[in-house]
Amino acid sequence: MLALLLALAPLPYVGGPAPAKPLPQEPLPTLSLSLPGLVRANYLSNGHLEAAHLVLEVPKDKASPSSLLRLAQEALGQALGARPALGEVDLSLYPSPYRGPEDFPLFTASVPKDRVREFLALKEPRGYERLWLNPGHAPLRPLEPVLEDRPRVEGPTALEGRERAFQLLQSRKGPRGGAIYHGNPALPYAALTFDDAPHPLYTPLLLDTLRRLGVRATFFVIGRNAEAYPYFVRDLVAQGHELGNHTYHHVRLPGLPEEAIREEFLLCNQVLEDLAGAPPRYFRPPGGRFDRTVLRVARELGLTTVFWTDDPGDYAGLSPQVLETRLLAHLRYGGIVLLHENVRATLEVLPAFLRLAQARGLALGPVSSLPLALR
Question: Is 340 a catalytic residue?
Fold first, then answer.
């Protein structure tokens, strides 16, 4: 009986080849604006809400708080003038020259349509809770584009064997070693998880989609993203979603000194606790890369490491049709679904996927509600 149940709830791989290089994603639609320092102005819709994200670079001599606010207000006005249907405009202002995701913004804001007048009336950047002004923070290490494909243990062969054994034992005795590999394969529930939150274009669209569908999930949050966009993290909590630790800088942890691993956990924990009022319970290693030290340090800090059973590779530039097929092919009782919140195809496929899961009699929700052992 146990063998049959395990066959129905495939375990995650430990080991295996490196993930394939992602295909380029379909370009996002853009707004045509005339703004100094405009890097990009994209917009997107989930069928109900249309949101835009504007990225601007600002010379050092124009980076005072009041100047940043005035530029953000000008950008907001132009965006709404170019596309009145926008239900939300999100703004990220970076020091010039803008180098990419490794940079840290000077100023961010989120302006829903019903708060446009309030934002435009601001005389200085305070008194509006959906605005963040960098107090002088800079990243300690760069973001790494490690992709969550298959969980990979780095270390001796014996450690890989131990991890496989723990996966099998979990179905009978619950989690071992502070890690969750899958849920109870006899019960009709799977965990829905999203990595790399928050994102200033996708988070409001994804939250709106999940709210309309009446589904909650676990979001594994990058600490530096949460710091720069704190209002989105508060939105996640207010709508009943669960926060998990995805490190502060999104870095490959194996090979780092133990004190650096601990720092990645603690920095992210502190940001999330400050925003949510409680520290996170769960952790997911970027790229699924882990070793004995990573698991031990997470456990010492009270974090349970969460892996996955259903990863369709949404980051790889898949068409919505291929993504939906892959999701459903691995969806099982006791599964843990891994998606990334900053992928257009994920946003498009999610409503149909959740309806099909429901048609199979399978409920999806946060990791904390996942039954873990047969008992």
Answer: yes
